[in-house]
Task: inverse folding
């Protein structure tokens, strides 16, 4: 099955913890080192060269002590959640999923990886293992998991060495600007070095960088230093560093400056929460630059979809690519059904169903007799869902597709999970379920998530298509969560920079209204208030297995259609940095190699 040409062009309307180390250490080969020094195998001396960028005597080592103590609880439900909920979830094995408990690597391993990706010549010796073990305030589980990365663990103390980046002017016309992720990696590598009292074979001078890029590296290092102090609850030092960051970042600058801006907001809010000043709302300079959300919300939320919504939809290649792939996957798995019933766990504005309608309308061999869409909502979202239903009905009428639209309240499903009556499924209907970021929103309410899955299992749909954020943002460890979120939104802002014009008001609204709010929730909030808890597909696999679900392969056609849509969108911008990779049977969509979204298909085993 293929989509109409207009759809292919994108015109249809509306790990684990080891990954963090890898992000920090995979410096781009373009910024390779120029010389190496020897590392003593006993760990007594490490020669690191010149590095670091900030001049603050309070920056003593502390972050990576906390960093190495972090247990990246890559499970759906963080240990920070109530004990009763944890007990219920652990009954079906989510908390003890082996791949969900990933320990931090030793700092020696971090440095070794930096050397590898920095193209250090072969004569550099490998870091040796510290023979004499020491006692550290880790839990037994932490020590057991850390053992996977080798014994030998050394706590570093002392002041950070702080110097400026050596800036070498280059011809701007001949220079390829580094991506946001590259800037983050370089800054992270330098930040690791700044924890050491001496030097290491990773050159601190990046001669291939422009003046703006070197300033961006320094800005990110300031942000990381701020996060360190926040994690250690050294609020005064963190606030001083944030003041420096806020003088250099801007919500209208380049992608690095913009993403740092919103992370500064988040760190500032976390400080206010921890010091009891959260109600003050005063964030210094940032308060004057923040977009007036009260003016933005009416522009975004008005129905039917306006130019602003269409700009979001058309400007984000992943938005269209994943919807095309999902629609085609559903159509392929329900064929040759003439009556199709789709349950949507998070319908939003309903734009994604235009893709399915066009796919169904193009089927000449078995024309659709009825398309029934049931949206699951809450009392707060009922009105907007009903408005989306009206808009979709008009679109279906134009496509000559008979459409029935219904809304089912989530509370009704929770109260009677084994009953099919709420969904009004007829015997001659072929059932499919679509979840576009609908499951992750229920992670903070594990009882509701489990009940919903039992209700779906009772319906036994032909296929369930799931799209989720491919990032580990549910760790109970603050710094782990901070880094995962930083790299995720760094790549996202890089994508927005390419796909939407710099002066596009819609981009500013999207970054502030959606990205900024999400960053603040992930970074600043804890406990029940932290409602954004994204996890990677490997965690969803373990979760779905508990309900007797089997992952099924996506067709090559659906994958190629998704690629084609993304390529056509980005060609208009003169850039094609989308990446499509397979993780088993799951499609991972990313930007310049950074995973951002996952799309997978499932069915229930009898």
Result:
């Amino acid at each position: 099955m293929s989509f109409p040409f207009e759809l292919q062009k994108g015109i249809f309307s509306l790990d684990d913890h080891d990954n963090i180390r890898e992000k920090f250490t995979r410096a781009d080969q373009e910024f390779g080192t120029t010389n190496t020094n020897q590392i003593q195998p006993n760990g007594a001396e490490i020669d690191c060269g010149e590095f670091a960028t900030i001049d603050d005597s309070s920056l003593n080592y502390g972050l990576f002590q906390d960093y190495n103590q972090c247990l990246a609880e890559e499970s759906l439900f963080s240990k920070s959640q109530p004990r009763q909920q944890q007990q219920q979830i652990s009954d079906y094995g989510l908390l003890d999923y082996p791949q969900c408990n990933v320990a931090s690597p030793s700092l020696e391993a971090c440095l070794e990886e930096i050397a590898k990706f920095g193209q250090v010549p072969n004569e550099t010796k490998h870091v040796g293992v510290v023979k004499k073990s020491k006692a550290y305030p880790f839990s037994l589980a932490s020590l057991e998991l850390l053992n996977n990365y080798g014994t030998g663990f050394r706590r570093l103390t002392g002041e950070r060495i702080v110097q400026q980046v050596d800036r070498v002017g280059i011809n701007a016309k001949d220079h390829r600007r580094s991506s946001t992720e590259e800037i983050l990696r370089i800054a992270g590598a330098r930040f690791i070095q700044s924890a050491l009292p001496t030097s290491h074979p990773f050159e601190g001078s990046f001669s291939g960088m422009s003046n703006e890029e070197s300033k961006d590296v320094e800005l990110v290092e300031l942000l990381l230093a701020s996060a360190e102090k926040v994690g250690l609850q050294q609020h005064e030092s963190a606030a001083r560093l944030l003041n420096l960051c806020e003088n250099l970042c801007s919500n209208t600058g380049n992608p690095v400056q913009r993403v740092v801006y919103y992370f500064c907001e988040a760190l500032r809010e976390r400080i206010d929460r921890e010091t009891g000043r959260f109600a003050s709302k005063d964030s210094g300079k940032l308060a004057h630059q923040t977009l007036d959300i009260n003016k933005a919300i009416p522009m975004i939320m008005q129905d039917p979809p306006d130019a602003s919504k269409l700009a979001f939809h058309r400007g984000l290649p992943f938005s269209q690519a994943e919807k095309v792939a999902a629609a085609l996957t559903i159509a392929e798995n329900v064929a040759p059904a003439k009556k199709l019933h789709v349950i949507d766990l998070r319908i939003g504005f309903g734009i994604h169903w235009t893709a399915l309608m066009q796919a169904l309308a193009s089927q000449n061999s078995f024309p659709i007799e009825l398309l029934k869409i049931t949206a699951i909502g809450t009392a707060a979202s009922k009105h907007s869902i009903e408005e989306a239903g009206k808009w979709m009905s008009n679109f279906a009428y134009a496509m000559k597709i008979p459409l029935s639209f219904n809304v089912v309240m989530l509370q009704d499903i929770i109260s009677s999970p084994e009953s099919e009556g709420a969904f009004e499924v007829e015997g001659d209907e072929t059932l499919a379920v679509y979840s576009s970021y609908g499951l992750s929103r229920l992670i903070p309410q594990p009882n509701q998530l489990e009940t919903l899955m039992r209700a779906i299992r009772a319906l036994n749909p032909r296929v369930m298509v799931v799209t989720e954020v491919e990032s580990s943002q549910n760790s109970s460890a603050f710094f782990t969560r901070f880094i995962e979120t930083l790299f995720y939104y760094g790549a996202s802002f890089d994508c927005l920079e390419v796909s939407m014009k710099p002066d596009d008001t819609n981009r500013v609204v999207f970054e502030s209204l959606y990205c900024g709010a999400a960053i603040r929730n992930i970074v600043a909030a804890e406990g029940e208030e932290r409602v954004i808890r994204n996890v990677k597909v490997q965690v969803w696999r373990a979760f779905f297995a508990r309900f007797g679900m089997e992952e099924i392969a996506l067709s090559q056609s659906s994958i190629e259609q998704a690629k084609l849509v993304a390529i056509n969108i980005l060609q208009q911008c003169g850039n094609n940095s989308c990446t499509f990779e397979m993780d088993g049977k799951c499609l991972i969509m990313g930007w310049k190699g950074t995973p951002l979204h996952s799309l997978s298909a499932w069915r229930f085993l009898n």
In short: The radius of gyration is 25 Å. The longest helix spans residues 478-499. Confidence is low (pLDDT under 50) at residues 5-21, 27-75, 82-174, 280-306. The chain has 22 helices and eleven strands.
